[in-house]
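Fold this complex.
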Amino acid sequence: MIGTKMAEPIHGIPVQKIGAAALADLLGRWPAAEGPLYRLLAARISRLTDAGELAAGLRLPAERDLAAALSVSRNTVAAAYQLLRDEGMAESRQGAATRIVPHRTTPAAVHRANGFFAGLLEASAVDVDLSLAAVDCAPQVAAAVADPAIVLDPAERAAVTRTSGYFPHGLPVLRAAIAGHLTDRLRLPAGAVQIIVTTGGQQAIDLLIRSEVLPGQPVVVEDPTYPGALDALQRAGARVIGVPAAEGLDPDRLEHVVRTHRPALVYLIPTYHNPTGRLMPAGHRERIARLAAASPDTLFVDDMTLAELPLGDGPAWAFRALPLAALGPDQPNLVSIGSLSKLYWGGLRTGWIRASEGIIARLAAAKAAADQGSAAFQQAIIAALLRGPHDEIVKWRGEWLRSRYTALAGALRASLPDWTWPEPDGGLTLWARLPGEADSGAFAQAALRHGVAVVPGRLLSVYSAGVDSAGTGTTSEYVRLAYAQPPDLLRAAVRTLAAIPARSR
Amino acid sequence: MIGTKMAEPIHGIPVQKIGAAALADLLGRWPAAEGPLYRLLAARISRLTDAGELAAGLRLPAERDLAAALSVSRNTVAAAYQLLRDEGMAESRQGAATRIVPHRTTPAAVHRANGFFAGLLEASAVDVDLSLAAVDCAPQVAAAVADPAIVLDPAERAAVTRTSGYFPHGLPVLRAAIAGHLTDRLRLPAGAVQIIVTTGGQQAIDLLIRSEVLPGQPVVVEDPTYPGALDALQRAGARVIGVPAAEGLDPDRLEHVVRTHRPALVYLIPTYHNPTGRLMPAGHRERIARLAAASPDTLFVDDMTLAELPLGDGPAWAFRALPLAALGPDQPNLVSIGSLSKLYWGGLRTGWIRASEGIIARLAAAKAAADQGSAAFQQAIIAALLRGPHDEIVKWRGEWLRSRYTALAGALRASLPDWTWPEPDGGLTLWARLPGEADSGAFAQAALRHGVAVVPGRLLSVYSAGVDSAGTGTTSEYVRLAYAQPPDLLRAAVRTLAAIPARSR
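Structure:
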């Protein structure tokens, strides 16, 4: 249960309460449907309760606080709470706070949900979605998955279906193709035995956590960072420590935190950081590689998922900085992960980990317990794409990316001139700061009711997304805007955002 | 770390030792390669150490004990230990026991490996593998994955690649196809909203454990049971309780255990139990459904992975017994899981969970954190196979299965007449009992050196596979024999097994 803290026990059962901002995160896209707001709000709270994300006996926020967090009137919240009481889902005793009726929740559950994914999982009807950094399928990829004969000859196709199909390490031909890709294009020397194939970058992160981090162990991340990493860390019971990175990571500060806490793992996105899009300078990378050499008990994970999405127009492989593991190719605590989801298509769900053979052996055992390996046949298709039209896809995606970033940044400068953001070097997202003392959570709620989904900054932060044990949540002035939609839609979305009353902005 | 127990601490660090039988399990298929036995043994111990499966300072078994567990001479073990000492991997002080040198192991690791999967993960060169219950790819499936146009029209293919590709619940068309399949063929009423698509049956089990079982909570399984379930439970830190099932599950005994321990989850394989192949009678199913109705805090999981592999020659859907959840279709603690891996092909890695909408919501959140959904395109192919040639595939696989079972059972009766096994009703495996006081672990090691891989019974048992906290391991007289190889190979394998000297048998 995130965003909750213990209050005084009643009848021996500790009572938990949830803060208004934390509940707003869990509510996610509740207004993105038809019907009066109070009914939508009550329905969403019911659903979270049935799913066990709101615990038995949980005390809901005061009406006034939730109204402010959601940018709605207090009457809307009051009517929603009344409806919940009418339906037997909630109760208030003697005029006290409203709480979830215990028997309505499932028993098993100490469920800790991240509002980011909880929101994405909800079917919703927004006009423009700036929250999901998902790309459309590259045409070369769409053609190959629909007709594998384009990239595989009959013998190659038959070679896959003649096997048992179980490859916890990944299909050998794909392990080799990824190793070659890293060595030849990304300047990271790798052999096939150092590669495990994963179901996307998300599984790469999750397997590393499951295999290498014990509950309660400290893990260091940039703050803000990729919310999928926070979600996996939270579920694993890691003690997550954030190092500020809104304006770039300070290596001195990272070194201090690593030396103080001796974390099991440090998770970094040096190349086109999510959400800021910044490229970590070469000098900082060298500092971190030296820190890793001096910290053999800590794994340093370099998430290269966005590494082939530069906004500059040079060749994609002309990195201005090396992958961290390229600075110590034989150093066993430098681990790299990546994915083809942002370059080819998310529907492939294909990622990878490059690590020492010993770590790969542990990860393969963890992968066998998790799913016994990813689907086999598509791995042969992806190997062929890596060997074949890869550079052409990189070029196509680069043009796709620049046209979208230009449209979004231009529209923001024209219509919302008081918004600021660090100029991204690559990636798929902007990290925009709202002017004044704005609460981006309330702004995101208001935007949603105008048909535009954005991610409030707190969902990407260790200290406000509820990962820390205090977990009451703080507000954030930032929103993450993904530029993965067509340019016209991005411009329309900015016009909508600019029309939101100043109070919510 | 499995199969270890604490001994007296040295220099304040607790020393662990591993029993001979437990180490033999972890060693898995060590002799299945070229070279002298002592070198192969030393190499495999080194590898386990590098992978963190043998912990820093771990005390290895006495030479005599390990030699007996591996069915090798004491000289072989002595030479292997000497080689490990020569290489700096192990040490013996003052003539005491041999132990792993601390600095050779990785720090993160309290790794608990299951010898079953550890063995399967090793590349090995056996002549006949009776250990893996993996089927070859059905021809209709091989054709469809290699050329999706056979089952999908151009609009259906384009409909998938036009999406973002992220479907934590599964591709909608496959969720609907699985719901229809369960309702129409397997007599289990289901709607698409009650289905989540998983990466094989293994992920179905793992997600349920991750979502619904907290570390330390009791979970009840049949003993023996599917080792992949034991592996996932072990990694999750569940307290696993086995109910004897070598001769079929006694519902009275199950009820007693459930009422005593109030487990979070009960995992059962009522239809063609793995490993025995037995079908649970209808009366027992009704008893268990009533027990579930009286135990709302416990999830009862019915693993239907093998349900379409009957050995009888009636139509596959003519079950002699209903799925457990069909006895209470709206009862939220009856959960069903399954997979197409044993009917279509393991390389599809496609399974499912049928549960209440509330549980599906939690599982989808867990799946988003684990991998954000399985690969999208193949899901459309599988939906088309379920709607199209499914019954034809069932018929083809039934003939495939019967010819293999007949070959294996006939050869065993002819060549090893003192082996016994419960007559299987379906599935892919025999649970054979060796005569006398045989230790099937030592027998499996001897078989491996003759080129035949079988699974020693202890790896399928809660109490001997090292899942229990005592974990010293007991021996088992059973071996699991999969009949997934061609009939000629099965007959050749039995001739090999029959030629193994009686001492090892």
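Chain A touches chain B through 87 residues (CB under 8 Å).
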